[in-house]
């Protein structure tokens, strides 16, 4: 057994002696039977308490040191997270700047596209075609050897259908002249 266990056992035995001495003192009327066990019990109690306080002080020092080590551990674990957040903020700033550039270019291209002379030509061609269709509807049926009106109408419809592709080709050529947009970055 440990010395600590012997002190605890001796303390309990002396407390039992105090109780027995109190009974004997009550019966015999002599205080000495109570005074000696009480003194021994108090002495043992004092020794046990001092011994228990000593390890407690060491425990207090360990408790003071523990938060510091925990702070260091937490700081080491948080460091990669902080670095990742900084990197994400940097990336976010880059993306925002790229977005501003792209929006500016898109706005410029839209305004340039709206100012293109081809749009006016397409609108005027659509008006001419519409007028031609109205004129054709008013013509009498054709003579033998002449191209029938239905065939002319079909050719006109085909010509109308080709207009968007012609305009698209022209717009693509103009966009190539203006330069390509910067390539999109994947996040």
Task: Give your account of this protein's structure.
The chain is mainly α and 187 residues long. 3% of the residues are buried. It has helices spanning 3-28, 32-114, 117-138, 149-178. The longest helix is centred in the middle third of the chain and has 83 residues, at 32-114. It is built from 4 helices and no strands. Keywords: Membrane, Transmembrane, Transmembrane helix.
| Strand tally | 0
The geometry reads as rod-shaped
Would you tell me the structural class of the helices and strands?
mainly alpha
Radius of gyration: 52 Å
Strand content: under 5%
Query: Quick check: average pLDDT?
Result: 76
**Main β sheet profile:** none
Helix count, DSSP H or I runs of 4 or more residues: 4
Q: Could you state the order of secondary-structure elements as H and E?
A: HHHH
Euclidean distance between termini CA atoms: 68 Å
The residue ranges in which pLDDT falls below 50 over 5 or more consecutive positions are none
Helix % is over 70%
Keywords: Membrane, Transmembrane, Transmembrane helix
Transmembrane segments: 12-44
Annotation keywords:
187 residues, mainly alpha, rod-shaped, transmembrane
Secondary structure elements and pairings:
Elements: H1 3-28, H2 32-114, H3 117-138, H4 149-178
Helix pairs in contact: 1-2, 3-4
Transmembrane segments: 12-44
Keywords: Membrane, Transmembrane, Transmembrane helix
Overview in brief:
Keywords: Membrane, Transmembrane, Transmembrane helix. This protein has 187 residues and is an all-alpha fold. It has four helices and no strands.
């Amino acid at each position: 057994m440990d010395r600590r266990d012997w002190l605890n056992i001796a303390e309990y035995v002396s407390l039992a002696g105090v109780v027995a001495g109190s009974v004997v003192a009550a019966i015999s009327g002599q205080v000495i039977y109570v005074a000696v066990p009480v003194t021994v019990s108090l002495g043992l109690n004092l020794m046990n308490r001092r011994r228990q306080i000593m390890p407690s002080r060491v425990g207090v020092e360990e408790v003071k040191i523990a938060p510091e080590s925990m702070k260091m551990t937490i700081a080491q674990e948080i460091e990669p997270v902080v670095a990742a957040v900084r990197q994400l903020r940097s990336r976010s700033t880059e993306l925002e700047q790229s977005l501003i550039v792209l929006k500016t270019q898109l706005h410029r291209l839209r305004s340039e596209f709206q100012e293109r002379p081809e749009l006016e030509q397409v609108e005027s061609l659509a008006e001419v075609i519409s007028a031609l269709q109205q004129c054709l509807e008013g013509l009498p049926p054709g003579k033998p050897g002449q191209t029938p009106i239905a065939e002319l109408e079909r050719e006109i419809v085909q010509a109308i259908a080709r207009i968007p592709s012609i305009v698209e080709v022209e717009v693509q050529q103009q966009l190539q002249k203006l330069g390509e947009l910067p390539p999109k970055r994947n996040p």
